[in-house]
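User: I'm preparing a small set of examples for a lab meeting where we compare how different chains pack in three dimensions. I only have the primary sequence for this one, and I'd like the structure in token form so I can line it up with the others. Please keep the answer compact; I'll paste it straight into my notes.
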Amino acid sequence: MFTPSTITLMANPPRLSDLDIEQKEYALKDKDHYQKKLKKAQDLMLQVQQAYYHQDKRAIIVFQGWDAAGKGGAIRRITEKLDPRGYRVHPIASPTKEEQGRHYLYRFQARLPKPGSIAIFDRSWYERVLVERIEGFASDREWQRAYQEINEFERMLTDDGVRIIKIFMHISKDEQLKRFEERLNNPIKQWKLTEEDIRNRSKWDAYESATDEMFQRTATISAPWHIIPGNKKWFARVEVLNTVIDALSKEMDMSPPPVDPAVVKAARKQLGIKISE
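Assistant: Understood. Below is the structure token output for the 277-residue chain.
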């Protein structure tokens, strides 16, 4: 008889104030240093994706974080060298008309990864205990019960063999202001800045408190939170990749699958290609 795994919260969940995002050690030497580290990490990420594909494994990468914290940039670096057939990115915005009135987890259940693939959520079900809580889109009863619902949802997935990696991109309030100014003065990036982004800055303390409570009540042993210091963009992108690689490769056979003997035989016979032993 199958017994569901126990939801075990972390004894010492992370807090935003515990992270010193201004430390100089987070900066890489120069662009060349960054690009070398990025290339190495992206090559490893491709190996991870291939292992998941050939072994029919499934993974979910969840991104949360402040506006302009670098979620989109990190996702682009994760997926840049991947086979597009093996992953899907799901940018989460307001519910559609079809989704409204249904349980808030409905739209995420419809986007779960199929065997051999990775689903990446740019914002996620955690909006229920962040934006929906702070902005009043969910009642007190709705967002308070969501912690248990989310933990049960993630346990259901991990019990079914899905690996879940949860990333929170953290930047300082001053750094966010700099990035807002940069976006507003860059025609290519202006569309990224919304009135809602600007308005949310006035509720920074409320969002920080809600985020810490989110960590406290949903950082489980099987699906912990990883806080990434995002003030230094180059460091953050490489750190996200390495964090994802470490989490996804744990207890996985990362060796490439053996070549099909029938393919070797056909290549030798029909094409004259010899395969080295």
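A couple of notes for your slides: The two ends are 46 Å apart (CA to CA). Residues 31-54 form the longest helix (24 residues).

User: Perfect, thanks.
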